[in-house]
Design goal:
Elements lengths: L1 E4 L3 H5 L10 E3 L24 E5 L10 E5 L4 H13 L9 H8 L5 H12 L3 H11 L2 H25 L7 H33 L13 H9 L3 E5 L6 E7 L2 E7 L7 E2 L5 E2 L1 E7 L6 E7 L2 E7 L10 E5 L4 E4 L6 E4 L2
InterPro entries: GTP-bd (IPR006073), GTP-bd_TrmE_N (IPR018948), MnmE_dom2 (IPR027368), MnmE_helical (IPR025867), P-loop_NTPase (IPR027417), Sialidase_sf (IPR036278), TrmE/GcvT-like (IPR027266)
Pfam families: MMR_HSR1, MnmE_helical, TrmE_N
Organism: marine sediment metagenome
Amino acid sequence: SIKASMDNSALLRQGWKTLWTNPFYWTRNAIKSFQDIGKTIGGKNVVDEVILTIFKSPNSFTAEDIVEIACHGGILITQRVFEEILNAGAKPSGPGEFTMRAFLNKKIDLTQAEAIQDLISAKNKFALKAASNQLQGCLSNEIKSFQKVLIDIAAILEVSLDFPEEGLDAIETKSLIDNMKNILNSMQKLSDTFEDGKVIKDGVSICIVGSVNVGKSSLMNAILKKDRAIVTDISGRYVFSIWKDGIDIQIARSFDFGQTWTTIVPALGAGTLPQIVTDSSGRYVFAIWVDGTDIQTARSSDFGQTWSASTNLGGGLVPQIVTDNSGRYVFAIWD
């Protein structure tokens, strides 16, 4: 869908103001003939049939008058509708502009504005839930509760300073101290959740360490439930990655410690459960995978630039391949 803020004077001059007569406006030929909206959008050529939904101030997300145009989901259709709206005088919004307007119009606070980006970029269900809770104002409400308690404490202290003759008896003093301790403890607990929240949002980086060809890639694939492996020569300069892409086995290589990558074309062939190994220099590289019920293997002797035709080793599953530091001796096993 496409959102348009109705503070745009050019759109208002073209008659879009009449949209506000109905909370929900629908027309079978909305882009074909916007006669009751003003000047025809799209000329005589039908672009699409759309639904227009009206969000009137101050109840919209940004607290401004907004119209949302729901067109069909094709990229070309959306682009054409967008072009016609721009031709009518609208301006494209900048990144995060609607969120910024909502913040400036006090519809959301800064923590909720940040939560919108966290919601969009969430990588797992826990990050999604945390961002949703923050967007609903859970963090904001907790901070506001701290502010209220602190303001109450500050007011009592100011009164005692302005009117010292009234004074604070021992019971009131103890209660005040207890309240301050409680609020400090609560604030510290909230602060302590920062690291947990960072892990939920960004995840954790782990390193699987072990000798050459002991099954590090197999362990990684078992954890991630993906068919992917990566190996390097002893210096780390030459890096090779193998994975399942659709039905094909793809290999990519890097000659600069993994900074830039080149995918080998064509793919090695169709298959699953790929594994890859290299000798200590990175010159000799060996791949193994399953094609249907057969074990296939291929080799490269020029740092992964070109590959031999695959060799069928026979029927089997879950293959593993290892080589020595020279690349002269290569061993394959499978179930």
